[in-house]
Fold each of these.
Amino acid sequence: MASEQQPMTIIKPRQGLLPRETRQQLMRLLRYGLGGLVIVAIVWTLLNTGAISTWYGQWGVVLRQALVTGVLVGSVFGLVAMGLTLIFGVLHIINFAHGALLTVGMYITFTLFESFNVDPYLSVFVTIPALFILGIIIQRLIIHPARNAPGHNQLLLTLGLALFIENALLVGFTATPRFIRLSYARDEFSLGPITLDFPLRVFGTTVTLEKLAAFIFALLLTGVLYFILQRTDLGKAIRATAQDKEGAALVGIDIDRISMITFGIGTACVGAAAALVLPFLQVDPVAGNAFNITAFVIVVLGGMGNVLGALIGGLIIGLTQELWVVLPVVLPFPFPSSTKLLSVFIVFVLVLFFRPQGILGKK
Amino acid sequence: MLTIDHLVAGYGDVEILHGISLEVNAGEIVALIGANGAGKTTTLKTISGLIHARSGSITFEGQPIHDWPSHRIVAAGVIQVAEGRKLFPQLSVLENLELGAFVKPAKHNRQKNLVRIFEMFPRLAERKSQMAGTLSGGEQQMLAVGRALMSQPRILMLDEPSLGLAPMIVADIFNVVTEINKNDGTTILIVEQNAVQTLTLADRGYVLENGEIALSGTGDELLQDDRIRTAYLGL
Ligand SMILES: Nc1ncnc2c1ncn2[C@@H]1O[C@H](COP(=O)(O)OP(=O)(O)O)[C@@H](O)[C@H]1O
Ligand SMILES: [Mg+2]
């Protein structure tokens, strides 16, 4: 059985820069990316021809602004959806309290800012651990005892939890919308040779400090989460548990502990997102609802349980929403104006029809 | 080493094991044979703590383990190659093996054990960065055995390792099992439906019928037994 001529390379196992699974997903993305480039080229040509050129001259800025805002905000959607999809992957529940927990994070950020003057980008160091612990408590007290209940009961349980949280916040903070505004949002920052004068002007579009910061932090945290999942023992245990619970138990992974920690990490994602969005949104007790629905659609769009899919899905939904609301303005024919959420539902229906396994999901 | 005493277990309202008793001594290869649905898998699942014993006891090296959570049982060295393999299909071969060394004592010797398993199964070394789900059935079974060995079993339990595999691969896997039993002194409890090969290999065997131990004896005794010959060997 044993063979003598085994090459020494097996002693130091190398798996390349990225695991195979990720590489395959990236290849798929590359294909989408190339497709996207072709579309961009066609659009570009069209934009330079005749009547379209005139139209684009008039509305180009609006469209570009929608694209920029869509990508910036979409990254935060991605972060929220990653939390939701991670929880789904391991615990097989859709946590309908995800949005309400986001609201909790926003109120924490608000309170820290109002009462203690804590900068929202610093308050992530509070909201992330706070929501992680809150998630763990919720999982222990509410989700875990119901782990063997039928799926729809667990769903109702998280809906009930959402209602409870909303009402508790209503009692604590009233329904009055609260917001925070950054004193330095319109300042100039010099980073060595470059000076950034906020809001930035890029190709005629406006990039605010709040949205740019949200984008950068969201991508950073997404990267951290991805690293944890791919490279740490904890991350591998989480992925193993998501793929085969019994198999995980049989290699000595404590499934209950992993479920608890995963739920904690998932809610920590909304803790981070909450602090990132508050500077450009406002919070009331139901502020997280729209995020909840959006995140759910993104999870389906990205492939249930697929973390990378959630990030891409977030960007797509961000773009879709922003483009959708400018359509009534920029289209040369009458188009009814409607809420951003309607576009999310349309995407949802389209995905269910044409790619129910999600963009990165396999059949 | 492993003593099962009047074990009762089942699923929901259904009782499957009606008080079975069996014993595996250190260094032995013990076979548990029986027809489809007899309760062999249920027995192994209960030993591993995936199902809870309703009554009776399971003792491993003097400690009652039937109340322990499965991860603690694994850490104690009671390792199972499950029916259906229970691999992580979207993790690489290497990641699957590394996860075999998830528990403390095994984690320590991870690299050393990895080298050894790649020597036992060169096919796994060739495919180490391939996703487990894309392996052939035989390779998956090798990986399942390899992953279990990464856990440094004190007792290795195999649930129908030959199921659906070509005879050559079955022989390979049985060879590895005998080899680690001889060289490392790893105790083996092997579950099989197909009895000849298993009983030839085993020191002793038990026959499970409808959740009860119907017969037991040395491998040779069972191979000679008329009831076994008609019921399980088709002779
Ligand atoms: N998860 C389960 N829920 C309910 N009954 C089960 C389950 N798994 C197995 N059984 C039943 O338990 C009995 C024994 O099954 P099993 O232990 O898998 O037998 P074997 O491994 O000997 O073929 C069978 O009647 C089977 O239908
Ligand atoms: Mg079985």
Amino acid sequence: MAKFTTLESKFVSMGIDNIDTDQIIPARFLKTISKAGLGDQLFYDWRYEADGSPKADFILNQEASKSKAVLLAGDNFGCGSSREHAPWALTQYGFRAVISTSFADIFKGNSLKNGLLPIVVPKDIQDWLFANPDSTVKIDLASQTLTIADGRSVTFPVDPFMKHCLLEGVDELGYILQQGPAIEAFEAKRVGSLNTLA
Amino acid sequence: MSKPRTIIEKIWDQHLVAENPGAPALIYIDLHLVHEVTSPQAFSGLRERGLKVRRPDLTFGTVDHSSPTHSFSLPILDTVAETQINQFEKNCTEFGIPHFGYKHEKQGIVHVIGPEHGLTQPGMTVVCGDSHTATHGAFGALAFGIGTSQVEHVLATQCLLQQKSQTYEVRVDGTLKPGVSAKDIILALIAKIGIGGGTGCVFEFTGSAIRSLSMEERMTVCNMAIEAGARAGLIAPDETTFEFLKGRTYAPKGADWDAAVERWKQLPTDPGATYDKSVTIDADALEPMITFGTNPGMGMPISGHIPDPASYSDPLERDSLIKALQYMNLEAGKPLTGQPVNVVFVGSCTNSRMSDLRAAASVLKGRKVAPGVRMMVVPGSQIIKRQAEAEGLDKVFKEAGADWREAGCSMCIAMNGDQLSPGEYSVSTSNRNFEGRQGKGGRTFLASPLTAAASAVTGKVTDVRSLS
Ligand code: SF4
């Protein structure tokens, strides 16, 4: 997982509440055997015509959006199923953070596992951002602050362990891999192990 | 003297690899079961990082979710599913994981094959990328479902970051009456404490009624712990457990077996140990249960009446019941018995084992599935299928007019071609009745194999005890 320390970026605005995981990545893409290509399927049904051609007026298809690493969304972002395909698709598109007033629980956990920072802000900050869609936001994870272009800063909550992982650029797996010696010591003590290869 | 501990705490303590400040505990996994739907991206993750599977000897795979259950002589029609199945077999082969592929003579539902081959053993930690992993808790194992990232974690490290759960005793004393089964115990529990009642907890099922259950019945009970919101559910091992396991392919042999039994006998909860929560259920008072709504907590005794939303004081609960009854197109205050059904499904990791098939066959023997009703009987594994055929159960089903199929998840999840049409009603022995779970617009009544078979015979929701 790439380190997340600070981020300064313009943002893509999607002023819709309750954007669910079926919109983020429709269910028919879950029989896929890879994560590859999910970035292109992000918001598929909003983003493409029936013949598969991109809708020119949809925000993610606009050239300027492609360099933006932050998504600004309405309330309760990511509700619906537990599919990890949702954060996979968002990060593959290029997003590193999502700003909203609230997130669905499972989506939040899945996002943090995949290097995507969910940032909860008060309503007035969200409103100001929607009103100033060309502005730039600054995110500082260490101090858990978001600074908007009018100079205001707000703090946002992050689980301490996940914060550590993001700051160090280790994902949970990276962290577990660092525990190699403890794992080996534990394995040396195990008795009566199963052997599925027998 | 050390503090008395529950079996849940003992297993947890025995699997603690590291406890670092600021991080969840790291626990070791003794058995990792994998299947085709939640694993492909985990294998890709390993490839991207250049990692291998740390302990293929503690890992086992099978195909079940997206594999069709129609005759093996037919081709797989869904090419996307076919790719997923093929990729799974390729992944297992590449990473050295033993597995049962499509059409393998021992293939079956992941939670059926684990116990069947003695892979699941007391005191183990067991995980699988599927929420019904709690099934394996029947053996006194701490078994729970995980997401795809965590599948990758376990493949790579054999470990998992976990927060410790609370302990919750579910005590079931007494004797089940004829027509009442293990499925009814768990449906009654979920109806009693709700789908969030066990959140943050691991259940230990205790009491005389649980002790007298067979291993297959115990699996049915533990299987649905997740539907009450619990992380896992387990039953302390006893002679019934040991007898079931002895001689199975992966169970310890000889002196190892004796040593294992000695270790397993230390697992049960110490006298004087306390639980964070508890509930009791009176087995003598249980009736066959059935769900009427769109989550497994919306259940009642089969002789009951569908609750009236007006009687609910909590506005959120009232709204969800109104919405559920609209989806189900059912009327509050009415009994559910007599409600016509289109489909009856006997199968799933909840109820697809020999005792389930025998129970269904005992009702169907000498009877016919009602005209217009489609009944599917789907064994949990190929081994169960052959055993049922050796006992002649397939003939009973076929003569009654039911469809006898290949092993798999089938209509439990409706991603393999077996599904309800919009508006259809089913009595199903599976574990989830969410909107669309058995097919878009489909309506599910969850019940036991006895209730399902009785309903197939009459074409209506039927109390098996009323069949003459
Ligand atoms: S039978 Fe249903 S619940 Fe069980 S593993 Fe298959 S899909 Fe999951």
